[in-house]
């Protein structure tokens, strides 16, 4: 248990933001945990902060906006009121008071629909996915007109995502839902179980959590809900997964053979622990030569990855001995349902999309493996978008975590590719 109380965390967040406002980036960054030091190197921290605060004008006032607790972490939001903008700084602390997450979000991040959205072409209906303890709030975006329409269920990546898969100012699931609905395709999106019911996930429950409870069960319920919606053609209900949702989409298809097809956006096909190690190695490379602490962290991670791969791995292995502190149950469940094996017997059309600038899912390894595993299948379409990152947003140069804090939209080319595949298939 942490000896820090809520007032301590509030004070730590205010001190951190004050240091940033004073331009004392080194002092602020010294409070990062090892993962954050890798994810946001000092030059990136300074650049992303200045990009938002310099145009905002003079500082008027600051104050703690809200606090929250999630899975043993304290989240403190500090609002900075500037002359021309308001910026919310969300600081995530681990139990030891180290900064383990950071979001710098202009609070004026009103959603600006991309040009491909025609908001007169659809309406939105609030729904509930599932029943009882784990029920989830969701939204069906329904095209105007008589129907029945094809429908798509959107399945999130890892972490406690909302129905828009909001990341900073970006809402990629809203882009997709509104983009498809503008062209007569209905879309269901919903808040993820680990977001909506965060307080229910006790340490004991987390130690038993697998992707089945985190993702799959709710996706299956969502697909069934969409089939039962009067405006939807039940024979044309598809599933679109992004990141983790894409990786387990074939498993969802295996459990629900009535799905008309799967759209896989940035899905890994290899063991999760392999890509975790690759991501850390990539992030370390951004800051140039590794520090001793970074080298030590990487060596420690290699040991944890080897532990996850151990044929003798059992559910009794403590999560602290495994990558990212995830449970042995989680890794064992993924091991027992390998994506590359599942797709060999999956009899439904697949559309596999990949960004060429994605550092979280490798275009040269994962995407290549999807293509090679499925090259004999005529009902599989694979497409690479060279200029897009993990969010399928356009960019240049090496992709970094701070890039996700810049407002953008899912590429229109991606939206058109999905629409064409859904309507021509």
Automatic annotation (TrEMBL):
Organism of this sequence: Methanobacterium formicicum (strain DSM 3637 / PP1)
Domain Serine aminopeptidase S33: 173-392
InterPro entries per record: AB_hydrolase_Est10, AB_hydrolase_fold, DUF3887, Hydrolase_4
Source superkingdom: Archaea
Protein name: Serine aminopeptidase S33 domain-containing protein
Molecular function (Gene Ontology), one example: carboxylic ester hydrolase activity
All residue ranges annotated as the DUF3887 domain in the record: 13-102
């Amino acid at each position: 248990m942490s000896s820090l109380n809520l007032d301590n965390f509030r004070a730590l967040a205010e001190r951190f933001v004050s240091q940033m406002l004073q331009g004392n980036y080194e002092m602020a960054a010294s409070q990062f945990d090892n993962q954050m030091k890798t994810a946001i190197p000092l030059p990136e921290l300074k650049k992303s902060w200045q990009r938002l605060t310099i145009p905002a004008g003079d500082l008027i006032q600051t104050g703690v906006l809200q606090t929250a607790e999630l899975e043993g972490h304290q989240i403190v939001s500090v609002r900075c009121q500037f002359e021309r903008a308001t910026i919310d700084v969300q600081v995530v602390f681990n139990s030891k008071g180290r900064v383990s997450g950071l979001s710098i979000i202009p609070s004026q991040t009103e959603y600006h629909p991309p040009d491909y959205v025609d908001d007169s072409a659809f309406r939105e209906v609030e729904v509930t996915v599932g029943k009882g303890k784990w029920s989830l709030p969701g939204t069906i975006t329904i095209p105007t007109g008589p129907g029945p329409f094809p429908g798509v269920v959107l399945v999130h990546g890892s972490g406690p995502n909302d129905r828009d898969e909001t990341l900073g100012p970006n809402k990629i699931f809203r882009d997709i839902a509104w983009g498809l609905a503008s062209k007569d395709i209905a879309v269901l999106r919903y808040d993820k179980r680990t977001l909506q019911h965060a307080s229910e996930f006790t340490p004991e429950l987390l130690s038993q959590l697998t992707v089945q409870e985190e993702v799959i069960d709710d996706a299956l319920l969502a697909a069934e809900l969409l089939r039962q919606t009067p405006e939807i053609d039940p024979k044309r209900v598809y599933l679109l997964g992004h990141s983790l949702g894409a990786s387990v989409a074939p498993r969802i298809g295996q459990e629900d053979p009535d799905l008309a097809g799967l759209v896989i956006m940035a899905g890994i096909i290899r063991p999760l622990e392999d890509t975790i190690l690759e991501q850390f190695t990539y992030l370390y490379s951004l800051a140039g030569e590794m520090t001793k602490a970074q080298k030590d962290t990487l060596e420690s991670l290699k040991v944890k990855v080897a532990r996850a791969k151990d044929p003798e791995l059992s559910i009794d292995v403590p999560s602290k001995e495994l990558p990212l502190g995830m449970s042995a149950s989680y890794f064992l469940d993924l091991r027992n349902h390998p994506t590359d094996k599942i797709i060999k017997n999956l009899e439904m059309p697949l559309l596999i999309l990949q960004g060429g600038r994605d550092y979280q899912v490798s275009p040269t390894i994962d995407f290549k493996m999807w293509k090679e595993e499925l090259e004999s299948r005529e009902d599989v379409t694979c497409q690479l978008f060279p200029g897009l990152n993990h969010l399928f947003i356009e960019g240049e140069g090496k992709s970094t975590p701070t890039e996700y804090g810049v407002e953008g939209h899912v590429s229109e080319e991606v939206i058109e590719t999905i629409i064409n595949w859904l309507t021509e298939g």
